């Protein structure tokens, strides 16, 4: 995967989108004090963000989804996105197939951010981290805050996860998902059905391919 950032470009958000008012990243920072915020407050904030930033895609294709991370929030791209435009709130992501890569381009706060995913090999999923304002690869793991320690086995079965490990002393558990699963979708499902107190998507650091 290759990520890049170009400075000094004009933000492409259309005037009617409302993104010129207050940036989504700023709203994310204002609403989330940290990863140890009260779970009820986090749940309310996540609901508000979901309403503010509905996942949309051109046509009937897969959508980009907003998900909580350990650092704030990120917009998770579909790994099989077709060429076209994904829009969420004031964000507009252009998807193209170029030279053996699936390319994501996002203009945000006057910068152009680009991620390139190779079409060869297993599918890889990327997300735009609103706090760090960059694309990162999404790990196939979720960080869960369980309602009860004994819930993990049932969650593994319901989600089709490969495995899970609980850390009772720390109050959380890790859920490892198969390559075809979208961690953002699984996180939304677990929270919406009340199976966990919270579910966070995990992001890897930026990875680069030779030029």
Summarize the structure.
This protein is of the alpha+beta class and 211 residues long. It has helices at 24-31, 39-52, 152-159, 183-192, and strands spanning 2-6, 56-57, 65-69, 72-76, 84-88, 91-98, 101-108, 111-118, 126-129, 134-146, 163-167, 172-176, 196-203.
Name its key features.
211 residues; alpha+beta; 7-stranded antiparallel β-sheet; 6-stranded antiparallel β-sheet; 4 helices; 19% helix
Write the layout of secondary structure elements.
Elements: E1 2-6, H1 24-31, H2 39-52, E2 56-57, E3 65-69, E4 72-76, E5 84-88, E6 91-98, E7 101-108, E8 111-118, E9 126-129, E10 134-146, H3 152-159, E11 163-167, E12 172-176, H4 183-192, E13 196-203
Antiparallel strand pairs: 1-8, 2-5, 3-4, 4-9, 5-6, 6-7, 7-8, 9-10, 10-12, 10-13, 11-12
């Amino acid at each position: 995967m290759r990520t890049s950032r170009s400075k000094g470009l004009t933000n492409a958000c259309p005037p009617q989108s409302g993104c010129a008012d207050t940036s989504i990243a700023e709203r994310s920072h204002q609403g989330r004090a940290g990863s140890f915020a009260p779970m009820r407050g986090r749940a309310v904030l996540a609901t508000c963000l979901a309403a503010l930033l509905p996942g949309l895609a051109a046509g009937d294709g897969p959508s980009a989804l907003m998900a909580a991370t350990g650092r704030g929030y990120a917009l998770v791209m579909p790994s099989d996105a077709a060429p076209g435009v994904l829009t969420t709130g004031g964000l507009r992501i252009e998807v193209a197939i170029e030279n053996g890569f699936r390319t994501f381009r996002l203009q945000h706060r006057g910068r152009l951010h680009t991620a390139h995913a190779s079409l060869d090999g297993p599918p890889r999923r990327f997300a735009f981290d609103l706090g760090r304002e960059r694309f990162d690869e999404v790990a196939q793991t979720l960080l869960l805050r369980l309602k009860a320690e004994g819930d993990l086995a049932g969650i593994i079965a319901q989600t089709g996860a490969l495995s899970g490990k609980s850390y009772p002393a720390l109050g959380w558990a890790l859920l490892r998902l198969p390559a075809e699963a979208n961690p953002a979708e699984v996180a939304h499902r677990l929270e919406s059905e009340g199976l966990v107190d919270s579910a966070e998507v995990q992001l890897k650091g930026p990875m680069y391919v030779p030029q």
